[in-house]
Amino acid sequence: QWATIRIEKGVKKAQPQMIKTPAANGIIERDETTMEKEIAGLHRVDFEFSDIFYFCRKGFEAIVEDEVTQRFSSEELVSWNLLTRTNVNFHYISLRLTVVWVIGVVVRYCFLLPLRFTLAAIGITSMIVGTTMVGQLPNSSVKNYLSELVHLTCSRILVRALSGTIHYHNKENKPQKGGICVANHTSPIDAIILTNDGCYAMVGQVHGGLMGVIQRATVKACPHVWFERSEVKDRHLVTKRLREHVADKSKLPILIFPEGTCINNTSVMMFKKGSFEIGGTIYPVAIKYDPQFGDAFWNSSKYNIVSYLLRIMTSWAIVCNVWYMPPMVRKEGEDAVQFANRVRSAIARQGGLTELPWDGGLKRAKVKDAFKEEQQKNYSKMLVRNGSIG
């Protein structure tokens, strides 16, 4: 009874705010007042040492709970989903639930995992063999048809291996050939989720190992765009190859995740502008997973790909919603950054995700000096405007 009341209270209080203002449930309450207004309230004209406290407070806020780092950890649930025992609020509730959890472990690891592993092996093997065979055929409409059939069939087998339950909305807006499909990025399985409903030309870096074998096999049957490490650094070469692909209206739509890294199913971070300099029609797609059945987010800094796949294949299921959105084109006078921001905002609204302006590269890299200098310039301009610097 105590656990039920606690869960109900958590749902009533937290659920309405999960989508609109997830940061409001954090450790600290942030003041969104701009630097100019807040410091102006402390003094009128000259520099004062009290200004330092503003920057100190902002620094402490960033250290305690910045809005970027928390997007690279698993989404917090309002109730325990019987998958982990690490949630402090539901670490131990009752003996009855502990027994249920143990039974769940047996079911997931002893029954579901072997079945899912078998299906995954069948899907991957079929993908390699099927695309290799189709790749031997001469270019024709028959080859394109067989390639799409192999990709669709194998992707659907792989989705079954994850016990995937996917709800596709507004299918009349599905990406068309010659276009660019742009989606938010939560997991490596995002591509499989989308390919389960239609074929795409993938864009990515050449890998080794099993992933490299799959890439070399699939590119023979389908015009995927794989880049070597040296090519990825040459942005102009990448843009040229993508433009050539988009110019051919008979080729499959390109699938791009412009965030460049996986974000934890709660937010959409900065879209890299390169995808929006190519030209052509952009088809936005919003993907939102249901964390109650399994955590689809891949924290690549914490788990390697094998550990990640083991985690999702031992979850209850992968449940998600996919929204196809009306196509968008670049407006006259709009640069690539503005266009990227407009597409990102549309995806965030549709998926009920928080929109953040930060670069997902902060997951592994330090903050650029340009961001620090921007704050210094703003403060200097404010002092000059107030007349404290002659």
UniProtKB/TrEMBL annotation:
Q: Which domain of life is it from?
A: Eukaryota
- Kindly indicate whether the keyword Acyltransferase belongs to this entry: yes
Keyword entries, A-Z:
Acyltransferase, Endoplasmic reticulum, Lipid biosynthesis, Lipid metabolism, Membrane, Phospholipid biosynthesis, Phospholipid metabolism, Transferase, Transmembrane, Transmembrane helix
Q: Does the keyword Lipid biosynthesis apply?
A: yes
Instruction: Provide the Phospholipid/glycerol acyltransferase domain boundaries.
Output: 179-290
Location (main, coarse): endoplasmic reticulum
Localization, UniProt: Endoplasmic reticulum membrane
One GO MF term: glycerol-3-phosphate O-acyltransferase activity
Output the SUPFAM superfamilies linked to this UniProt entry: Glycerol-3-phosphate (1)-acyltransferase
Please state the pathway this protein functions in, per its UniProt record: Phospholipid metabolism; CDP-diacylglycerol biosynthesis; CDP-diacylglycerol from sn-glycerol 3-phosphate: step 1/3; Lipid metabolism; Glycerolipid metabolism; triacylglycerol biosynthesis
What membrane topology term does the record carry?
A: Multi-pass membrane protein
Entry-linked SMART domains: PlsC
A biological process term (GO) from this entry: triglyceride biosynthetic process
Q: Name one GO cellular component term.
A: endoplasmic reticulum membrane
Q: Which residues cross the membrane?
A: 90-111
Give the PANTHER family listed for this entry. GLYCEROL-3-PHOSPHATE ACYLTRANSFERASE 3, PHOSPHOLIPID ACYLTRANSFERASE
Its family remark reads: Belongs to the 1-acyl-sn-glycerol-3-phosphate acyltransferase family.
* Designated name of the protein: Glycerol-3-phosphate acyltransferase 3
